[in-house]
Amino acid sequence: MLCSQPLSLGTVTCLVLIFGLYATSLSTDAEKGRRKVVHVLEDDTGAVIVQTAPGKVITHRGGSITLPCRYHHEPESSDPNRIRIKWTKVTDALVFEDVFVALGLQQRLFGSYRGRVSLEKNGPGDASVIIHNVTLEDYGRYECEVTNDMEDDTGFVNLDLEGVVFPYYPRVGRYKLNYHQAEDVCKEQDAILASHAQLHKAWLEGLDWCNAGWLEDGSVQYPISHPRDQCGRKDTAAGVRNYGYRHKEDERYDAFCFTSNLNGKVYFLKRFKKVNYSEAVKACVRDGSVVAKTGQLYAAWKIQLLDRCEAGWLEDASIRYPIVNPRTRCGGPQPGVRHLGFPDLKFRLYGVYCFRKNEESVNGDVVKSTQGPRKSSKDIPMNTTSTRTI
């Protein structure tokens, strides 16, 4: 019995088992693998109360992950077919998105989760679900609710993704995006708007960017690792500067995007001569690929350790190149994705970065691969993305 006092008949006890890494740091390596338990107790009034410790489970785009949740009900002879399990995603704005509902043998999936979510079924009292082929949009906070005829209670699990945050502005220039446009440009670059937690983690890893950008909760922030007068005064402390929540329609800023593991490969196309933008597009197509997006290049740099000291076209007509190991004549002493701006499409000549999806053959048919990511460059600090005017 996990409760500290007797439970009345019909009471449902939910236990959310949180595995993996946690929002708060743990003191020893042994503690890092320790799970946390949510105890649901009954107070003197008969109401159900929750005592919980925050935590998260971590995966990557394209992977599978278990959102753990367990329950216990009294009496033990209660009909399991009367137990209702419901999973919901909760946004920062307290908007609830239905994910999964089960009542006995009946189950229902919702929206983009159809065909990707199933019960783990790891013995009696297990309400855990498995999300397959995880997407960027799956990132966030989930609620597990267990109900019987008399009582109900909930627990929460945070789903985090391995990936990389990058600042972005379009060809039209800086501070040109309202919130909805910022959402769109991140999606166009194979990414989503970053959360505050993701931006803060990137700042801890060294991200320094002196232009404010939208985050997914509608706030506007920017990370400063090296305080200076042109970025909010030199005598202020380093940190993530916050403009607060801004008007999503009227105000204009840049964007901070987040992307994760690639189902494919970014590579620099070797050619004898440099090309303009339209020639670059054709060259990638002839090679069985497409021109890489900015988010794909950042993911290849951070996760696949792509290191190339040659500037090349990307899909948004920007010129960038990824540096894992800084060296002379490669854009400065820090690792990062160098950005050379948005040059003339016709007359400026560069190389090109292409993207090719993973494919594998199954029973003679070609399907997309779901292989996991390569070794991550977690030890590489994210520093200022260099910019030079062309």
Offer a concise description of the structure.
The chain has 390 residues and is mainly beta. It has five helices and 29 strands.
Question: Would you report the number of β strands?
Answer: 29
What fraction strand?
25-35%
Strand order of the largest sheet: 6-15-14-9-10-11
The largest sheet is: 6 strands, mixed
Rg, rounded, reads 24 Å
* First-residue to last-residue Cα separation: 69 Å
Low-pLDDT parts are 1-53, 361-390
Put simply, the count of helices is 5
The structural class is mainly beta
The average pLDDT is 81
Percent helix, as a range, is 10-25%
Family: Belongs to the HAPLN family.
Protein name: Hyaluronan and proteoglycan link protein 4
InterPro entries: C-type_lectin-like/link_sf, CTDL_fold, Hyaluronan_bind_Proteoglycan, Ig-like_dom, Ig-like_dom_sf, Ig-like_fold, Ig_sub, Ig_sub2
Disulfide bonds: 210-231, 309-330
